[in-house]
Design goal:
It contains five helices and 26 strands. By secondary structure, the protein is mainly beta. The chain has three domains: 179 residues, STM4215-like, CATH 3.30.2000; 110 residues, Immunoglobulin-like; 112 residues, Sandwich (Immunoglobulin-like). The strands form seven sheets. A five-stranded mixed sheet has the order 1-2-3-5-4. Strands 8, 9, 12, 15 and 16 form a five-stranded antiparallel sheet that branches. Strands 19, 20, 22, 23 and 26 form a five-stranded antiparallel sheet that branches. β19 and β20 form a beta hairpin. α1 crosses α3 and α1 packs across α4.
Length: 441
């Protein structure tokens, strides 16, 4: 789901992506985002113009934008709008040198190669100083893919669009559709506390903790790893006894305020953390006191004072909503086992990988190998077979792998392990990935 900046972020990402492509193909070409009727007065000599001319509800999502309501009318799910964005790409320039047609070919090639507006493309745009007004956009966090597809406007539709809508002479154009953009409403959903005890809760509903965001302390777009520090944001987070549930483990955070909790993941036992999606929940625990008091019996000899005992009920837990973050594993050890030459001038064998996080028996695991070679580097991805139990180590079979040195990445439920970069400015491999490395052959 995305905030109100989602539509503008899509336009800016397309503009940035195409600018990098067309300026290499046609010198001096620029990508603009003005209305087509302003092309003659406000556009450079050659370039591509993006114009968002239509928005419609994505049919595949149906009525998902309608908030689900409970019996009393409370909104139980936050509202959202699933949108398809329709763009008109116009091409202008020197017709003698066929600049509009060359630009058209450049744009089609680029969008066919890209296919999707990936999270990295979107994130690079929102962090670009040229688009500072999009810094608060969270479109990169949308879980659903954002596809870019060529539209199906025929000649009659295109003629009507230019003649009726813009009322200016036609220039070479093509339509594209971007789908799907999920725009989230601001009104929060309402959901009652779960029944955690047969005893009545003494805390009012308004004091329930609410988690709105889970971020790494290193920065919003930084990966979360085993040694990361989490920033949990929300409201009503502080209580007499505040704990954070990570998976199935309760941890006491060192720093708590009503709006923010700071939690180093190193406080969580290694066996409790799993690579992939992790859940986070804030839990307030309190000791409820029974209103019934009983008096301790006086000793038989008459000595001693009467005393009063208070019977206490079991601790009550008030839980927040559940938020999630992606925990990325790190490869600790990496070793090739039982390597044998295959029939295709490669090697078959097994790769034993040990991670710093627990890998569940039911989790999907893959190993990605990228050869370190100056030209035509080989790339492989192998999927691990099913495992009988959870653990830190997984063995993955490989086949027909060319001999050489490979950078290795582990994918656990889509969470990709981190590669190490060379940070030494004097090194010949400065800012290149240098480990973890695997030698084959």
């Amino acid at each position: 789901m995305s905030n109100y900046l989602a539509i503008a972020t899509v336009t800016a990402t397309l503009q940035r992506l195409l600018q990098a492509s067309i300026q290499a193909d046609v010198s001096g070409a620029r990508v603009t985002t003005i209305r087509p009727e302003y092309l003659e007065s406000g556009a450079p000599e050659s370039g591509v113009n993006l114009f968002l001319y239509q928005i419609e509800t994505n049919p595949a999502w149906g009525n998902s934008h309608t908030p689900a309501r409970q019996r009393r009318g409370e909104v139980s799910r936050q509202s959202q709008a699933a949108l398809d964005l329709h763009y008109l790409f116009s091409f202008y320039g020197n017709d003698v040198e066929l600049e509009p047609q060359r630009l058209l070919g450049s744009v089609i090639r680029t969008l066919e190669d890209s296919g999707n507006l990936t999270a990295d493309l979107i994130r690079d745009t929102t962090t670009d100083s040229s688009y500072a007004y999009l810094a608060d956009s969270d479109l990169a966090d949308q879980p659903d893919a954002i596809r870019v597809e060529m539209g199906d406007l025929d000649l009659e539709d295109m003629t009507g669009l230019w003649g009726s809508f813009f009322q200016i002479p036609y220039v070479l154009s093509v339509a594209y559709k971007v789908t799907v953009v999920l725009l989230e409403g601001d009104t929060p959903a309402e959901r009652a506390l779960p029944v955690g005890s047969t005893q009545p809760s003494l805390a009012p509903f308004g004091n329930r903790p609410v988690v709105s965001q889970v971020l790494p302390a290193a920065g919003r777009y930084q990966p979360v790893a085993r040694n990361s520090i989490l920033i949990i944001r929300g409201r009503n987070l502080a209580a007499a006894q505040t704990r954070v549930r990570i998976g199935s483990v309760l941890v006491t955070p060192p720093r708590v305020s009503n709006a923010q909790i700071v939690l180093p993941l190193e406080l969580v036992p290694s066996e409790a953390l799993r690579a992939g999606v992790q859940s986070v929940q804030v839990v307030h625990q309190s000791q409820a006191v029974s209103p019934v008091e009983r008096r301790r019996a006086q000793p038989a000899n008459g000595s001693g004072a009467l005393s009063t005992l208070r019977e206490t009920q079991p601790a009550l837990a008030i839980e927040s909503n559940v938020e999630a973050f992606v925990l990325r594993p790190t490869i600790v050890t990496l070793a090739a086992r039982d390597l044998e030459e295959s029939d295709r001038e490669g090697f078959d064998g097994r790769i034993e990988v040990t991670a710093d996080l627990t890998i569940g028996a039911a989790q999907s695991v893959a190993l990605v190998l990228n050869q370190r070679a100056a030209s035509e580097p080989a790339t492989y991805q192998f999927t691990a077979s099913k495992r009988e139990e959870d653990g830190f180590t997984v063995v993955i079979a490989i086949r027909d792998v060319k001999p050489g040195q490979y950078l290795a990445r582990l994918l656990v439920d889509g969470a990709e392990s981190l590669l190490n970069q060379d940070r030494d400015p004097q090194s010949p491999t400065f800012e290149q990935y240098i480990s973890p490395l695997l030698q084959i052959g």
